[in-house]
Structure formats: structure tokens, C-alpha cells
Amino acid sequence: MRIGFLGPRGTFSFDAGVKIAEKDDELIEYKTIKDCIISVEKGNVDRAVVPIENSLQGSVSETIDSLVESNNIYIESEIILKITQNLIANRNYNLEEIKEVYSHPQAIAQCRNYIENNLHNANVVEISSTALAAKEIKNKDYCACIANINCVNEYQLKLIEANIQDNDSNQTKFWVLSKNQNKIGDKMSLIFSTKNKPGALYDVLGLFNKNEINLSKIESRPAKTVLGEYIFLVDLEVNEKMDETIKILKTKCSKLKILGRY
């Protein structure tokens, strides 16, 4: 089996891919989350592992937006990883020597207090993944990255300081995506948009309440049509009224997309 992940090797997405991979599976790296999802859609990989939510920084908008645009892609399962961020460089610099710090925007946000308090002389440079940041600074003097501890061995770097995230309860949820639509599972995620009329969103949420379906998450995203129109991502707990609820939702929503049951 071929499993796509946000690369390069050493990202937390790679760790999540390793977690689900079996002995003979092949891990395939992609430059963006969108590329991972498209690879499943085109059949280039059987599964893709993508981050969907961080406990400190919230949802990963690139994942949501890419799933809105995709077709016949479903959530097969979820993985939750504890995230520890680390300051890494090609030599054992003193903190005041570091002139630039590279990392993914979410990792930077997770370590903002540490950066402000300890890296006074450093410019922060955003890059598309933590592992790519590690590759970027490998041959750069007086530069560091914030990345997974695995990047130390993966790219022959030095650990300057471990566990620099501002909050130790830092976790990221990943979705395993495939073309397989599960028929069973206690959770479901779906995307919907409402008709443009008063009370439309209230009617949809009221339906969940009426059928005693617990919503564990609801989030809005711009519909990318006109200003003021939104789509909604909902995570919910499945009960015996789920099939009936979906049938009614189809009549109440201008768009309804089931992302998966898992």
C-alpha cells in the first residue's frame, strides 16, 4: 500500500504515516496538504495522512479547503499525536548567536513565547513544513529551525533545546483519507452550506438537537463565492437517527458533503 504524507521525512505527518503503515507499505512525500489529497483522488496513493486540528492553534484551514474541493475522498480513521517542538541547528549555537529561525506557521505559533523570550536576535521565517525547515538550515550558519526531534537524526543536525512549545498539552489530530467510505463508526464529519434565507442555519442546527445528535465541533469557513457566504464543518457523534437526519439535511442545505464515518 502507498501512503501519502506532507513531507519531507521527519514531519509530524510522517510520524502519523509511520503509525498506520504496515511492513511492506511505501510512504510517499508531497510538498503540500492539497497535493496529498489530490494524490488519493487520482489514485497515485491508497491513503493520505493529513493534519486537521491542533489543540493550541485550531483547525488546519488548508486541509478543510482542499477537502471541500475534492471528490470521492473520505475519512477512514483519525490519529492523535502528542506534539513536542524542538530548536535544532547545524551546530551547537548559543541562543543569542541565532539570526534566523525557520518553521511551519503552526509550529512558530506554538512556540511564540519561547521565541520572544529567548531568540531576541532572530528573524522568523515561515516555511511549508517543519522537516523542510530542517533541510533548509542544514547548510546555513547561525540559523535554526523548530521541528520534530526526529529531524536531528534524519538530517544530521544538533539539538539546541528540547520541548520549547508554550504548552505541554500540545496535540495534533490527523485524518487518514482514502476512497473507502466506511458504513460503521461512532463519529462522522460533514461539510454543509445553508440556503440564503433567515433562520436557515438555525433550522439545520435545530435538526441535530431534535434528533439528539451531539456536535463535538462546528466551524465556519469562507465559501469562496461571495463575501458573507460560508461553509460549515461539523464533527458529530453518530446515533440511530443519523440516516434519517442526513435525508432531511439534504433538503435543508444548499450543499452537503459527508467527509466520512470513522
Topology:
Blueprint: E1 2-6, H1 12-20, E2 26-30, H2 33-41, E3 47-54, E4 58-59, H3 61-69, E5 74-82, E6 86-89, E7 100-103, H4 105-110, H5 112-118, E8 123-126, H6 130-137, E9 143-147, H7 150-154, E10 158-161, E11 171-178, E12 187-194, H8 200-210, E13 215-222, E14 230-237, H9 242-252, E15 253-261
Parallel strand pairs: 1-2, 1-3, 7-8, 7-9
Antiparallel strand pairs: 3-4, 3-11, 5-11, 6-9, 6-10, 12-14, 12-15, 13-14
Helix pairs in contact: 2-3, 8-9
Defining traits:
alpha/beta; D-Maltodextrin-Binding Protein, domain 2; Alpha-Beta Plaits
Helix content: 25-40%
Strand fraction:
25-35%
In CATH terms, the superfamily of the largest domain is Periplasmic binding protein-like II
- Poorly predicted runs are none
Q: Quote the average pLDDT.
A: 94
Terminal-residue CA separation: 20 Å
For the largest beta-sheet, the strand count, sense and barrel status come to:
6 strands, mixed
How would you spell out the order of helices and strands? Answer: EHEHEEHEEEHHEHEHEEEHEEHE
Structural class: alpha/beta
CATH topology of the largest domain: D-Maltodextrin-Binding Protein, domain 2
Can you tell me the CATH architecture of the largest domain? 3-Layer(aba) Sandwich
In total, the number of strands is 15
Coarse shape: elongated
Integer tally of domains: 3
What is the level 1 CATH name of the largest domain?
Alpha Beta
Radius of gyration (Å): 20 Å
Tally of DSSP helical segments: 9
Structure, explained:
The chain is an alpha/beta fold and 262 residues long. The chain has 3 domains: 2-82 and 170-178, 3-Layer(aba) Sandwich (D-Maltodextrin-Binding Protein, domain 2), CATH 3.40.190; 86-161, 3-Layer(aba) Sandwich (D-Maltodextrin-Binding Protein, domain 2); 187-261, ACT domain (Alpha-Beta Plaits, 2-Layer Sandwich). The chain is 29% helix and 35% strand. The strands form 3 sheets. Strands 1, 2, 3, 4, 5 and 11 form a 6-stranded mixed beta sheet that branches. Strands 8-7-9-6-10 form a 5-stranded mixed beta sheet. The longest helix is centred in the last third of the chain and has 11 residues, at 200-210.
